[in-house]
């Protein structure tokens, strides 16, 4: 014990030096936006590689469970295919029209496959990391989806990794509609249960039922319309009594999220910019005539 104390006393100045250095770096990166962004970008690449390796090991031990789920899913799809083939023979024209409209709605988008390499849900403002970045064509504000519904929106990118703000983040604000009803609101997560969120600002005159689907509205260039969000579990009045608040069971299982797709909305964004430019031009001409 005495030898340990002698050692600490002898090198106390070095220990003090390292402590002060650590404190100075924390203050530098926390209270200076430029240095903080440089540190975040550099650390993101290193951390992303570490998360990717850890994710690969975890994926290996989950292969048995994944194969079981895939078998069940394939059985369901086979049954669904048989049913669709039967329905197709009864209404060829309607089916052809529906497929054409679906293909047309997906034309502006390109899907970039990626995997989640890091995610933690213990905070109110959660983030997740995926293994694709700028080199793969991913940019900020692109939407992220999975096979069962929406995941979130790209927040920050590096060459080979991207940070995503998921639905499970208090800053997330995604436009949604009640499927088949046309009434829209905004999806928010307030913390707590990762399987539920809320849709706010639904009009008071809206008519709907419990367990109806909530899907993306398509009112922005982030997500295509009709991507699954969840099912309505409960209806509340808003604080000002002017609208409804819906508690929604999310369709995405964030606790087991692994494979995702990033929605490349470049073409659609260009269309929206052209449309806005045309609208601005028309407003300017009308204002000129009025004057």
Automatic annotation (TrEMBL):
InterPro entries: Cell/Rod_1, Cell/Rod_MreC_2, MreC, MreC_beta-barrel_core. GO terms for biological process: regulation of cell shape. GO terms for cellular component: plasma membrane. Residues 117-263 form the Rod shape-determining protein MreC beta-barrel core domain. It comes from the Bacteria. The chain crosses the membrane at residues 12-31. Keywords: Cell shape, Membrane, Transmembrane, Transmembrane helix. Belongs to the MreC family. PANTHER family: CELL SHAPE-DETERMINING PROTEIN MREC. This is Cell shape-determining protein MreC. It comes from Segatella oris C735.
């Amino acid at each position: 014990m005495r030898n340990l104390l002698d050692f600490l006393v002898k090198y106390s100045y070095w220990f003090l030096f390292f402590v002060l250095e650590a404190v100075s770096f924390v203050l530098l990166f926390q209270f200076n936006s430029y240095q903080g962004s440089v540190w975040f970008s550099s650390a993101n690449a290193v951390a992303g590689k570490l998360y990717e390796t850890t994710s690969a090991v975890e994926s290996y031990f989950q292969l048995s469970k994944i194969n079981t789920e895939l078998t069940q899913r394939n059985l369901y799809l086979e049954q669904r295919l048989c049913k669709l083939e039967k329905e197709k023979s009864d209404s060829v024209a309607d089916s052809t029209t529906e497929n054409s409209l679906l293909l047309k709605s997906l034309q502006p988008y390109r899907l970039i496959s990626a995997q989640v390499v890091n995610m933690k849900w213990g905070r109110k403002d959660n983030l997740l990391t995926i293994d694709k970045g700028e080199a793969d064509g991913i940019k900020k504000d692109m939407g992220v989806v999975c096979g069962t519904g929406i995941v979130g929106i790209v927040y920050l990118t590096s060459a080979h990794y991207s940070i995503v703000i998921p639905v499970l983040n208090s800053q997330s604000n995604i436009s949604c509609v009640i499927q088949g009803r046309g009434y829209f609101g905004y999806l928010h997560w307030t913390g707590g249960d990762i399987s539920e969120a809320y849709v706010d600002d639904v009009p008071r005159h809206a008519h709907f039922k419990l367990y109806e689907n909530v899907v993306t509205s398509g009112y922005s260039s982030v997500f295509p319309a009709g991507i699954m969000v969840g099912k309505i579990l409960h209806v509340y009045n808003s604080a000002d009594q002017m609208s409804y608040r819906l508690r929604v069971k999310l369709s995405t299982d964030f606790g087991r999220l692994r494979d995702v797709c990033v929605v490349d909305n470049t073409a659609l964004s260009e269309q929206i910019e052209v449309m806005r430019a045309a609208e601005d031009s028309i407003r300017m001409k009308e204002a000129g005539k009025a004057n």
